[in-house]
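In keeping with the milestone schedule agreed at the kick-off meeting, the structural modelling team has produced records for the first pair of proteins. Each record is given below as a sequence line and a structure-token line. The laboratory manager (R.T.) confirmed that both were archived under the project's standard naming scheme.
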Amino acid sequence: MHLRIATQDDINDLLHLEQAVVEAERPYNSHIKANNATYYDLPALISETNSQVLVLEEKDQIIATGYIQIRASKQSLSHEQHGYLGFMYVAPDFRGRGLNRLVMDALMGWGRAHGVNIFYLDVYAENQAAINAYQKLGFTPSLVEMKLECA
């Protein structure tokens, strides 16, 4: 396996994997668009200096992804910036092998090298498997987003 920084040449593969993330999260949010739903501006994340996108390859196939983006923190917080983690994906045949941890550790290492020591990510409240995985890495629940649908 080979962990590397994503390039613009990876965009088509990454867009395909982004759709796998969308489909995996669809059961948790009935408001995700039926068609053409996207989460990330991958070309920007790859090219900007405040972010890094990583891919893990096995035999020239991307099997895991993730990104970190250094973002300004809310004015009320004691830290001026934080690392936001997203696009955390491992192909189904490769899950349960610690690959998400490998990618996240590398991303957080990049963040620490850029002066960041606080990290956030979003996860659906009903996605208990993902919550458990992130808690094993030391993440704790911080803020719950509430939603109300009015007819």
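The second protein of the pair:
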Amino acid sequence: MKLTKIAAIALLGVMLAGIAQAAEEFTIRIKDHKFIPETTEVPSGEKVKLVIVNEDPSPEEFESYELNREKIIKGGSKGIVFIGPLEPGEYPFFGEFNMDSAKGKIIAK
């Protein structure tokens, strides 16, 4: 009986730890070869999850030298990019396949 209670408490602790570590999620869309929104504010000092939804039929590459991230997102699909924890500041990104129009930035506050 005592062992069952200990196991239940341990399992609850593991479940709560997983919830506490879940990264906050932000969605960025690609439409007409542009990132929408162009600017996304995220909390500094925390790991965050970017969900990048490509609504265009063609692929696009989310790329940022400052974030040290790049990911090709096929047309009509989505991709996940984890960033952070970030220092307060601005972190530009761009679409490598449409550099003239696909531009944006992450602002960590």
